[in-house]
């Protein structure tokens, strides 16, 4: 939850900065997976071996803990579903689906009339992100 969050557009990201007890700081960028309304933010974090930030966020961060965020950031990879006039094809692999989830969710809640499709590839079915949600939204 981010009280006072100004909102964001599908495709934007945030920087998350962690500060250790000794004052050392590390920051990384994470794509937002939720449409941009409200105070709830959702990011997808894939732990990186020997990473400074991602393992902590994915495995150790207590529920309800405060983290420092900066954003919304990014203006090059945005999609405004209410302005769409042609069919949309989104392509993703692995964790790259995270920002596209914001786009798909925004499309679903915007009432946009243009079709949107996702082509998503993973090496192993166990690596699918948002599997249940994507399966529920898939055409028959």
Q: Can you tell me the overall shape?
A: globular
The neighbouring-strand order within the major sheet is 2-1-3
One letter per element, helices H and strands E, the order comes to EEHEEHEH
Cα-to-Cα separation, first versus last residue: 35 Å
For the largest beta-sheet, the strand count, sense and barrel status come to: 3 strands, antiparallel
Beta-strand fraction estimate: 15-25%
> Can you tell me the number of structural domains?
2
- The whole-angstrom Rg is 16 Å
Count of strand segments? 5
What percent of the residues sit in helical stretches (DSSP H or I)?
10-25%
The number of helical elements comes to 3
The stretches of 5 or more residues where confidence is low (pLDDT under 50) are none
Quaternary: single chain
Alpha-beta classification: alpha+beta
Report mean pLDDT, rounded to a whole number: 91
